[in-house]
Amino acid sequence: QLQFVESGGGVVQPGGSLTLSCAASGLILHYYFIAWFRQAPGKEHEWVACISNSDGNTYASDSAKGRVRIFRDDTKNTVFLQMNSLKPEDTAVYYCAAHNGDVCPSSSDISSWGPGTQITVSL
Hints:
The chain is an all-beta fold. It is built from no helices and 10 strands. The strands form 2 sheets. A 6-stranded mixed beta sheet has the order 2-10-9-4-5-6, with no helix packed on it. Strands 1-3-8-7 form a 4-stranded antiparallel beta sheet, with no helix packed on it. A hairpin with a 6-residue loop joins strand 5 and strand 6 (58-60). The model has no long low-confidence stretch (mean pLDDT 94).
């Protein structure tokens, strides 16, 4: 059974940092594009960053570029999202997802979501 478990969220002050983890069972992340999405209250899922299969090329949204680093530890079958210089508008539930394709997935490519992990950026 395919399952993702996101962790590492929390409450942080503006300017702070967090590193999220995405652990998977039922598939080997190395063979998939892995993306992080987020969903703020009342909004749709928003793509944040993505890492490609095999060669590990990384991509980030304009709002996240320069503040996030997505990386993979194949020995742990885990993908991480390091987030720096956090802003109140980064407050959301963060989800990871795998995509069996040649490009980073959009939210419409994802059929089911894990529990996610909450980031709250507040004074």
